[in-house]
Amino acid sequence: MRAHTPADATERARTARKGGAPPPDLELLVHGVGGTTPQEMLDAPCTSLVTGDETAAVYRRTEDVDAERRPPEERQEPGREGPIREAYVWCNLTSGNSSRALWLLLLPFMVANLAHWMRPPADRRERTVRTYGLFVRLVALSLTVLLIAGACEVALDLIAWQCAGSADCATGKSWLGFLSPENHGWWSQPGRRLALGAVLPGALTGLLWYLSNRTWSAYESSPPLERPVDESAPESGNRPALCLPGFWYGRRIVARLRAAHTAAGFLTIAAALTLPTTTYDRRPGGSGPQDAAGWALLTLLALGALAVVAVVCHRGRSETRVDGELDRLTITALPGAALGVLVLSVLYAGWSRPGWASAGKLPGNQAFCAIAIGEGVLIVAMAVCALALHRSAPLGRTPLYGLAGPAVAMLACGLGSVLAGGIAQRVADWLDGGATPGEGPGIAPPVLLSWLATAIPALLLVLLGLLLIFAVRVWRVRNRLLPTIMDGYPEERPDAVRTRRIASTVARAGLTDSAPWIVGPVALFTLLFGALAVTGAWATDEVPGRAADSAPGVVDAAAQTAQALGSWLMGLAFLMLITWARRAYRSPAARRTIGILWDVGTFWPRAAHPFAPPCYAERAVPDLTWRMETWTRRYGGRLVISGHSQGSVLAAAAVWQVDPRTRGQVALLTYGSPLERLYGRWFPAYFGPAQLLSLHREVRCWRNLWRCTDPIGGPIRLPDGSGPEVDCDPFKDPLAYGRTPEHPLPAPILGHGDYQADPRFDRERAGLLARLPEQTPPPAEESGQMSSGRSSG
Question: Which residues form the signal peptide (predicted)?
Fold first, then answer.
């Protein structure tokens, strides 16, 4: 494949002007989730790279590469009509590299980051908006602390403190023999064992920093096309945030948050080392110098924690301009100072204490209760802010009365607990020879983790009940639709099996609109069960199976069963996550399947959690913006940006970013689009009715194609009554009910895919082009301006 340079483009423009040829039309295709190949998008076996790299690029059919410099009669092959077609392929942004399999471990962080963008729209309540964002960032910080605390629980408590300190557990484990007190070696003292165990959580913190820094260099550090803010644009809700030039450039805030979260990880490890050591040094008759050193370290830990919280609370994201500044002192000094405190903690723990022996659980593991309580308080505070925002500007289709963000944040905390607790439960089970963790005198994780595991079967029963309710609902909707299916095929002979299949597909597609009534109850019960688990662990200091020993037999048996089953389920969830990550690392096909999750979850910038997978839109939206700006200015032609599924969201975001002149030459074609059905409902502050109406008014023309059988795409439903101008009537699906001369075999139910197979697609695209004004080639000096001007990237 040969990449064509800006000099080639300038020469083509000059050739076109010399011949007096009218400028060509262009269709810029943007694919949806899961990715595809340029050959499939362009329906051509041979394609050529036009611009881009191995991560994201624009392709054309090989015979169309030089179409702009040909006379109009030679631009198309005989029998092929329509504009020149280009394909923007961005799937490698989420599923290309094998290292992206590690992103599965970042799932709770990604979900927490989504909660930041799910706030209700603000009606002149900037302080409430900032408070909401502050609470989300603090929840995200707690997830980092929780994950590192889980690693400390495994390495420091279960292995270095409990198992290595017990002759029964260490026997038969050669890799632990040198730590056993029975050998009286240098590493046998508890403090030194803890210092050695700190290597594992320290390495995990370093890995998280590395992944964030690597993706930050590849995504957030690429500036978008610089342009001035349109000061004449309407303010507040009618001026969408996605039109601001700095929206897709989060370099500064990610760097600040990465420094804070890295420091939080190091300080968490330092606290896990220092608290049990100072507990021993403060005993009667303890050493004075060691006690003083312990207090000094505790003071440094407190000061470091305050500094981390202060940085997280600072508002560093700027969207009204491309903010290329970096807070060098913060991003260097904060994690460096925290690492220094960790090193001092390691040295302090390694101080010789000949009389110290480890027994029971590691002192300080009650921190899990403190983390759980803190997360619950923060999520309730988020809910209060979200309700206040929703009441100030209520929208009818906003899910859960504006509480979608807090609900999703609660699910992120639940996922974090499963990730942190699952490995602790399985490691304790492995070290204890298969016994239920917490039962008997063997190796046991913190009591709270056993209580949380016990809640999992109850939560699954709630989820199963909800799924049964929705299954009944689908059955009822299908039966209601059965008499109406043949209205779309009046000349066809009815077939009961075919009719039921079509009606079932339509009924299942409608479940997307009911998703809030699964997310909401699951989040609510997660919060309630979490509160009960914290209460039970705090009140009894026993695992549920033992706490219920004095209860009636049925209750005792239920507690024992739930505890054992929950422990296995929590461990199984963690093992499944590791298995999927390993499979995705080895298999590109599996990585592409898992990449669908990232296509949906990583559209938004990392505004809350820097360790979340990177935002691919911070590369894709500037790519599309640059392509539309440069092509229209060089050739002066009409352009249709054509987006399917998630590609329609990228297309809309890119149209918002181009300047008004370019927008006047661009038409927007969306199909299978979740713009209103998913993004408009779950992210109303950015894709709500006012924002979509603004897009409709600012873009030259817009057409949205959809099907009733599509579970993702749907109509736009503009609030001013102009919806039919954007939305077409739903596409017929299937195209033919029975066998016809055009369809001798049964036509498939397409649902979310292959909108181009419908003949109406070409007609709708042609209608969009007809609504764009005829263009003339730009002057020579203007067409060369973009190619010779300075690039901000």
Answer: none
